């Protein structure tokens, strides 16, 4: 409907030009111009296929000009034939006095003008379709680039986590072989789940939390009572669609740079709040302010921030708050939205 409404002023302009080119009154002009405008509106959609078949920059210039000009001439011939048939039909509906020429005879004066306008409108439609195709191609390129970036960032997570986990298992083998074996089993379960979910573009937040819990089970073997977890997740948060492996790097940072730095360990709190526009997820952990800081050397937070920006743009935020011996990461994102 919007497309057809855009042709209303073009039809009015066409009728004005035809009435000035031939001796025809307003009724006759409207009776001929309205069907012609509707015909042109639908015919000018056809360049979409020829423009896709002959893209700019790929097809030779002579081939472009030949095909499009030939199509414009054929269109003009069809419009002229339709106009003459319409004029003959209108002449029977609005008969003129016997001494006056018939409408189809008077309308012949406007045929050259109608032919020129038909060719011009068709060529204008071709140019417009090339613009639309260029915009579509640019958007597709942006989407492909964003998907490639997301895949690269997501692929970066697995070896990073695996390296840290194998290091932990190596440390346990010399202290407690049974716990190291238990950690290997839980690690295999986590990797199986992460690989399965990692193939998907988005997953429900409930599945992402389950994956984070699997990771915490792995680390629980290593830290024992030193690692405690508190969850306050509102029920509506689980339905939000999020990129996979989004929470696990944040939990990993909380353990590596927080719990691991404290002799007595500590509690990691996971809090999720659902709002009308999105979700707010907070991970908070204690840390030793006097411990050497290696957080800036990790890739976890930077990876999550880059993935959020690549997928959501400015609609999502990752905030970091440090208060004395508490480290807080706040994740705010729309539910199921994309950039």
What does this structure look like?
The chain is of the alpha+beta class and 339 residues long. Helices cover 61% and strands 13% of the residues. The protein is built from ten helices and seven strands. The protein has helices at residues 2-21, 26-43, 47-53, 61-93, 103-106, 111-173, 177-198, 205-223, 248-256, 300-312; strands spanning 203-204, 227-233, 241-242, 266-274, 278-286, 317-323, 326-334. The protein has a five-stranded mixed β-sheet with strand order 2-4-5-7-6, covered by helices on one side. The chain has a two-stranded antiparallel sheet with strand order 1-3. Helix 4 packs across helix 6 (111-173) and helix 6 (111-173) packs antiparallel against helix 7. The longest helix has 63 residues, at 111-173.
Mean pLDDT: 80
Report the sheet-strand fraction. Answer: 5-15%
Q: Largest sheet at a glance?
A: 5 strands, mixed
By DSSP (H or I, 4+ residues per run), the number of helices equals 10
H-E string: HHHHHHHEHEEHEEHEE
Portion in helices:
55-70%
- Tally of DSSP β-strands: 7
Q: Which structural class is indicated by helix and strand composition?
A: alpha+beta
Please give the order of strands in the largest beta sheet.
2-4-5-7-6
Poorly predicted regions are: none
Return Rg in Å. Answer: 34 Å
N→C terminal distance: 28 Å
How would you sum up the global shape? rod-shaped
């Amino acid at each position: 409907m919007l497309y057809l409404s855009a042709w209303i002023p073009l039809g009015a302009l066409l009728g004005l030009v035809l009435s000035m080119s031939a001796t025809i009154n307003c009724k006759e002009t409207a009776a001929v111009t309205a069907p012609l405008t509707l015909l042109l509106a639908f015919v000018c959609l056809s360049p979409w296929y020829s423009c896709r078949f002959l893209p700019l920059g790929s097809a030779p210039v002579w081939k472009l000009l030949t095909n499009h000009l030939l199509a414009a001439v054929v269109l003009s011939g069809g419009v002229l034939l339709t106009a003459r048939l319409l004029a003959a039909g209108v002449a029977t509906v609005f008969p003129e006095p016997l001494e006056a020429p018939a409408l189809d005879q008077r309308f012949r004066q406007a045929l050259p003008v109608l032919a020129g306008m038909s060719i011009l409108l068709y060529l204008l439609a071709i140019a417009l379709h090339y613009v639309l195709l260029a915009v579509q191609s640019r958007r597709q390129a942006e989407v492909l680039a964003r998907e490639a970036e997301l895949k690269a960032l997501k692929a970066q997570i697995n070896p990073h986590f695996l390296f840290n986990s194998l290091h932990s298992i190596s440390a346990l083998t010399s202290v407690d072989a049974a716990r190291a074996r238990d950690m290997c089993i839980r690690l295999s379960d986590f990797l199986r789940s992460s690989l399965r979910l990692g193939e998907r573009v988005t997953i429900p937040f409930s599945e992402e939390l389950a994956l984070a819990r699997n990771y915490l089970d792995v680390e629980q073997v290593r830290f024992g009572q030193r690692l405690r977890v508190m969850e306050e997740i509102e029920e509506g948060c689980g339905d939000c669609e999020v990129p996979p492996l989004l929470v696990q790097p944040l939990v990993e940072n909380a353990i590596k740079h927080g719990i691991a730095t404290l002799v007595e360990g500590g509690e990691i709190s996971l809090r999720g709040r659902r709002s009308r526009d999105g979700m707010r997820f907070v991970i908070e952990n204690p840390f030793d302010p006097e411990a050497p800081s290696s957080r800036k050397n990790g890739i976890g937070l930077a990876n999550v921030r880059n993935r959020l920006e690549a997928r959501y743009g400015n609609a999502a935020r990752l905030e970091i708050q440090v208060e004395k011996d508490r480290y807080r990461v706040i994740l705010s994102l729309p539910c199921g939205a994309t950039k």
